[in-house]
Amino acid sequence: MQTFNVEGMSCGHCVKAITQALQAKDPAAHVRIDLGAKTVEVQSSLPANAVVEAIQEEGYQVSAV
């Protein structure tokens, strides 16, 4: 499980956009997003840099926890 701090998430659209972006790169990825804590947990075979890149492509600032 990889956990990231993601700034700029505020609604269901954000959750959907990030989830879809990650699952486009790894259809088997399990994504859990906590809007209040501004965290994204990802269980995936993707390396951390690929996860960060996918989230950044959606317009969010990302840092590893």
TrEMBL record:
GO terms for molecular function: metal ion binding. CDD domains: HMA. The keyword Metal-binding applies. PROSITE patterns: HMA_1, HMA_2. The keyword Magnesium does not apply. Keywords: Metal-binding. InterPro entries: Heavy-metal-associated_CS (IPR017969), HMA_dom (IPR006121), HMA_dom_sf (IPR036163). Residues 1-63 form the HMA domain. This is Copper chaperone. It comes from Pseudomonas thivervalensis. The lineage of its organism: Bacteria, Pseudomonadati, Pseudomonadota, Gammaproteobacteria, Pseudomonadales.
